Amino acid sequence: MIRTNSTAQVVEFIFSIKLNNLNIHYILFLVPEFLSIFATEIKNSIMVIQSLSIVVPTKGCMNSCRFCVSRMRKDNYPDLISKHMTDEEKFYYTEEYKKRLSFARDNGCNTVMLTGQGEPQQNMSFIKRFYEMNNELAMPFRNIEIQTTGASIHEATIIELRNYGISTISLSVSCLNDIFTNSDIINYGKNPIDVPSLCCLIKKYNINLRLSLNMTDMLFLNNRNHDDNPEFKEIFSFCKSLGADQVTFRKMYMSSKYTPVTPQDQWINEHNIIEYNSSCDWFTLLNKYIIENGKYLDTLEYGNSRYSVDEMSVVVDNDCMSKNSQNKTALKYLILRPNCKLYSKWDDKGSLIF
Ligand code: SF4
User: Fold this and answer.
1) Residue among 56, 59, 74, 149 whose CB has most ligand 1 atoms within 8 A, to mutate
2) Ligand 1 centre from 61 Cα, in Å?
3) Which of 111, 126, 206, 327 could form a disulfide with 51 if both were Cys (CB 3.0 to 4.6 A apart)?
4) Contact 146/119 with Cβ under 8 angstroms?
């Protein structure tokens, strides 16, 4: 049996024995070996992309969440996909945009997340355009999600989103059981978002509901002191009562691991939930609770395990900016920005793919 390290070497070898008029038998004998090496090489060269994040163009954000990552940096990517253009420019940039969508699909990605530096629903005409562009692809995305705090979303908005193919609404919540505290954290103040009513409406229109829980120290308010066990049972029961299909626990992102640099870092430093008390780490306890009370489902491409707890799909995401990938061929997210370019990192222009 011949073992070689590359397809080129195999091809060269077959070619050389052909030249020497050796028996065709030997060549046929080598074909399975060649195909197996070839298949492995193709597999290794394919990126595994968990989801494609679409940055919906907006002029700022209607909220000012105290932990907002977008406010930590000034990103200056021009909007070439939704601003007014000549017909020729519009055609060119639409094709460029669709090329990047297809690239993600070609690399096995089937989930799109509409997100951005503002609330996606601030630009409904773009969401409609995205829906049209997606439908023009040879292989359209089937699983389309939107990330939102729910601000300014009414019944009519939900119907519109459903009509534009949105299959999951991922509702970002910072305090589960007090809408005023939740609104205070996202600074929406005057008109608190009625999270329970919104969840009801999402379910009414048969859209999957994911609760993306920001791990603040106000995530679940109660009168316990920190000597008790954390309130995981109550949190899962509350999510269930809201009709959640999926729950993601999200660690808040700080721009620096060591010293708070931005006002957002400062807020996170004071309000993250990582240290439960002097001896307990909240994440460790949460993972333990999920393993003991849930059922393992599968492992996502990027390495996070998915469990079923109270018949809700549960993921703990402690790396929302994709900093710690162990799998070097896997990319957690690709990011398609309004400049029609594809990146692999949120905070680094150098991560441009094309
Ligand atoms: S909704 Fe998103 S973009 Fe807007 S302030 Fe909050 S975190 Fe930032």
Assistant:
1) 149
2) 6
3) 111
4) no
